[in-house]
Amino acid sequence: MSNLLQTCSYLQDDREADAIWEKIDDHMDSRRRDRREARLKAELEKYRAENPKITEQFADLKRKLADIQVGLTTAIGPYTLKLQDHRAVCRPEAQAGRHPGGCHSSQRTLTP
């Protein structure tokens, strides 16, 4: 059987048919690629809708923080002052002997 095909010549009609089939294959590949990309895009959108990023979850809260008035922040003032006092006492230049544990208990002036 293979000897029969070896004796045939590759004609112009065969070239044209091969070119047509090549175009058809390219077109079908592009359709499959378009469908695959559309499916992946839909899956990604669904995943992002179900699992939003942390920044997206708190974006509305961050916008609301910009609207907070200065008078409202004084309500947390005592804690802020306490924290600033603690940091002032625990600065490295205020410590005689540095160690990774933080301030010495004798240097702490704050009550827990």
Q: In DSSP terms, counting alpha (H) and pi (I) runs of 4 or more, how many helices?
A: 6
Calculate Rg over CA atoms.
Answer: 37 Å
SSE run: HHHHHH
Query: What is the number of domains?
Result: 2
Give the N-to-C terminal Cα separation: 96 Å
Task: Give the strand tally.
Answer: 0
Strand content: under 5%
Q: Name the poorly predicted regions.
A: none
How helix-rich are the residues, as a percent range? Answer: 55-70%
Main beta sheet: strand number and arrangement?
none
Q: What is the arithmetic mean of pLDDT?
A: 76
| Shape summary | rod-shaped
By helix and strand content, what is the structural category?
Answer: mainly alpha
List keywords for this structure.
single chain; 112 residues; mainly alpha; 2 domains; 6 helices; 0% strand
Topology:
Blueprint: H1 2-7, H2 12-50, H3 54-57, H4 59-65, H5 70-73, H6 77-89
Brief characterization of the structure:
Helix content is 65%, strand content 0%.
How would you describe this protein?
- The protein has 112 residues and is mainly alpha-helical.
- It has two domains: 2-57; 68-112, no CATH class.
- The protein is built from six helices and no strands.
- It has helices at 2-7, 12-50, 54-57, 59-65, 70-73, 77-89.
- The protein is rod-shaped, with a radius of gyration of 37 Å.
